[in-house]
Structures are given as structure tokens and as C-alpha cells.
Write a structure and sequence with these properties.
α4 runs parallel beside α12 and α9 packs across α10. β4, α5 and β5 form a beta-alpha-beta unit. This protein has one domain: TIM Barrel (Alpha-Beta Barrel), CATH 3.20.20. The chain is an alpha/beta fold and 316 residues long. The strands form 2 sheets. It has an 8-stranded parallel β-barrel with strand order 3-4-5-6-7-8-9-10, surrounded by 7 helices. It has a two-stranded antiparallel sheet with strand order 1-2. 48% of the residues are buried.
């Protein structure tokens, strides 16, 4: 039997996914209790949208067949979008094969009066621009592309290839959309600067949940340098391993303006539809408020990096 490669072993172990979790777990918060913060403000404004907390439901498609078929794609997307809207945040929708994944997403965004963000994959050829035109019909003013899906070889095998985009091509895509545009899948400063140059309104520091390339670092490891490089020029979002309100606060302290959460939203929707989604959001918001109080953080849009514990620093 041939010896397995290190790459295969990493794939089995989910190294990139695990490092998303580990990168956040390694961060600790300084507990500060001599202050006057008792009712912190969790609200933020992102891309012209006022949110009750700095959180988006990440774009996920194909849940109806990827999670056992317990609920339909329409039930899932409706639960995410309606639950997020009711809680004062915004849900994003996914794209993929078969066709009903994107079709359902647009129908349900339209049903919530455009209060959702459709994401498209980095398709090759006419499909990409055709989907941009369709996205314009659902009433939203924001859309995105998860370029971190460019490595999904399964789509190419199905005759629906995806690929990376050069900066000029990305600029054309953004211009063609006519909307505020989010580029998801940024893991380096150079890509972040390229997204700014192309005209993107926001980026998501993301490695696609650690599912597309092993040995990528956890997103919390690369977020600070990216935020320092482009945070004054573009809205910086981040995902990857975020599970609690404390995790959200850590990402904000690292330089994110807001975060995306994926898998836990899927579990919440599968288990309780809209009620499951709103319950999850309420839980995360309560955790965020508690963490803000215990670190003396008054506003979610003004998080001081000093709330993060550094072993070599003196504690005042």
C-alpha cells in the first residue's frame, strides 16, 4: 500500500479548519472592571446598512442536499434571511450547482425586500455576468463573490468551471454589478490591496472555512496585517472559526469591522428554522455584550486592540 502524502493526511485531519478555531482560541481578553461601561452599544453601520451587531450570516448554498435533506433549500434560505432581518442583521446567500441554489436565493431575498446579500462563485464565461444581471432583479444593493471557491475542482468536473480573477477582470465584474461589492476569500495583504484597486467596497478575510486548501493559516492570524494595510480604504470583514460573542469581539480587536458566521447558522436553521436562527443570534449578542462589559468596551465600532492579552505586556 503506497505511503500517504502529508497533504492527504492534512486533508483528513482538517488542518486549515482546525487552525481557524485554534487561532481564535489562542487569543485571550483582558478583563477590566473598573470603568463605567454597563450597556455597551453593539450596533454598527456596514456598507450603508445599520446592524444590531457586527454580524452577517455567511453565504452557504446547497444545504438541502449537503446536510441530509431534512429541509428544502427554500426553507433554509428563508429561515436565514427572515431570522437575520428580524434580529436586525443581514443574511448572505450562496451559489452553486444545481441551478435551484441561486434561483432560490434570489427569490427569498426579494421576499424580504432586498434585505439579503447574494454571493456568486467566480464562474468562467457567460455564467458569471448572467448571474450578476439576475442578482440585480432581487432588490438588493449589495452583492459579493466568494473567490475562495476558485479551487473547487468538483465544479469544473461538472462542466461549470470556476477560476481566480485578475485585478482588471475583477474590476470589470465590480463595475458591471453596479452595486456595492464584497470580495470574499482574501488572505494576503497583496490580494487585499488588489481588491481595493479593483474597486471593491468590502473584503472578507476568509479561507472558505478551511475547506479548499490545507495549510492555510487561520484567518485570525492574517487579519491584523490586512486590516492595517487596507482598513482605512475598505470595509474589512472576517470569518473562520467564529462561534461566540467573545470570538466576534476578538476579531473586532484584530481589525475587522464585522464578522461572518457560517456553520452555526446552518445548524440553527436546520434545527429550528427561523426561530433557531433568531435564538442563535440572541445568544451570540448576549455573549458579545457580556464580553464588552467585561473588557470595558463601550462601542462595537470602536474596539481597542489593547483588550487582547499579550503575555509580554504589562497589565495596568
Amino acid at each position: 500500500m503506497p505511503e500517504r502524502s502529508r497533504e492527504w493526511e492534512a486533508l483528513e485531519q482538517g488542518a486549515a479548519f482546525k487552525d481557524n478555531i485554534a487561532a481564535l482560541e489562542e487569543l485571550h481578553l483582558n478583563m477590566r472592571l473598573i470603568h463605567e461601561v454597563t450597556e455597551p452599544d453593539t450596533g454598527v453601520e456596514i456598507l450603508g446598512k445599520k446592524l444590531s451587531l457586527p454580524l452577517f450570516a455567511a453565504p452557504i448554498g446547497g444545504v438541502s442536499f449537503n446536510m441530509g435533506g431534512k429541509i428544502s433549500e427554500q426553507e433554509y434560505v428563508k429561515a436565514i434571511l427572515q431570522g437575520c432581518k428580524e434580529a436586525g442583521i443581514i443574511g448572505c446567500t450562496g451559489d452553486g450547482v444545481p441551478e435551484f441554489v441561486f434561483k432560490t436565493a434570489l427569490e427569498e431575498i426579494k421576499a424580504v425586500q432586498g434585505e439579503g446579500i447574494p454571493f456568486i462563485k467566480p464562474w468562467e464565461g457567460d455564467e458569471l455576468f448572467e448571474k450578476i444581471e439576475r442578482a440585480k432583479t432581487c432588490g438588493t444593493h449589495i452583492m459579493g463573490m466568494d473567490i475562495d471557491a476558485a479551487g473547487l475542482i468538483t465544479l469544473r468536473k461538472m462542466g461549470r468551471p470556476v477560476s481566480p480573477k485578475g485585478v482588471d477582470e475583477l474590476g470589470q465584474i465590480i463595475k458591471k454589478s453596479g452595486m456595492k461589492f464584497i470580495v470574499k476569500g482574501i488572505m494576503t495583504v497583496s490580494d487585499a490591496r488588489a481588491a481595493v484597486y479593483a474597486g471593491a467596497d468590502a473584503i472578507v478575510v476568509s479561507n472558505h472555512g478551511g475547506r479548499v486548501m490545507e495549510y492555510t493559516p487561520g484567518t485570525a492570524r492574517v487579519l491584523p496585517q490586512i486590516a492595517r494595510a487596507v482598513g482605512q480604504d475598505i470595509c474589512v470583514l472576517a470569518d473562520g472559526g467564529v462561534r461566540t460573542g467573545g470570538d466576534i469581539l476578538k476579531m473586532l480587536a484584530l481589525g475587522a469591522d464585522a464578522v461572518m458566521i457560517g456553520r452555526p447558522f446552518s445548524v440553527a436553521a436546520m434545527g429550528g428554522l427561523k426561530k433557531g436562527v433568531t435564538t442563535f443570534i440572541e445568544t451570540v449578542k448576549s455573549e458579545l455584550i457580556q464580553a464588552m462589559v467585561l473588557t470595558g468596551t463601550r462601542r462595537a465600532d470602536q474596539v481597542d486592540p489593547s483588550i487582547l492579552f499579550k503575555a509580554c505586556s504589562s497589565l495596568d
